[in-house]
Specification:
The chain is globular and about 30 Å long. Helix content is about 40%, strand content about 20%. A hairpin with a 2-residue loop joins strand 1 and strand 2. It has a domain of about 60 residues. Helix 2 crosses helix 4. The protein is α+β, with helices and mostly antiparallel strands.
């Protein structure tokens, strides 16, 4: 599992930018219950049951359901853009 990345300041809805790399890390994670989580001002991929008080932004199950097992670079960019836009909305 990847840990939490660089700290993010400000409000979640206006400051979080999900990148294609975040989506690729989620897609490549070997855990079926992996989730992209915002916690303590950072984004990271952890098992969903370890999210604690963090906010689950996207799960590997949802990613696979939307894009299949093999996520292309274009799909990772699209997923990141959609998720960032949704969070900003």
């Amino acid at each position: 599992m990847a840990g939490f990345g660089e700290p993010l300041d400000g409000h979640l809805s206006t400051m979080v930018t999900v990148t294609a790399d975040d989506i690729r890390v989620l897609a490549r994670d070997s855990s079926a219950d992996a989730a992209l989580v915002f916690k303590n001002g950072r984004l990271g991929v952890v098992p969903a049951n370890e999210a604690g008080d963090g906010r689950i932004l996207y799960t590997k199950a949802a990613l696979v359901e939307e894009y299949g097992e093999d996520v292309t670079d274009v799909e990772a960019e699209l997923a990141a853009g959609h998720l960032t836009a949704e969070l900003a909305g």
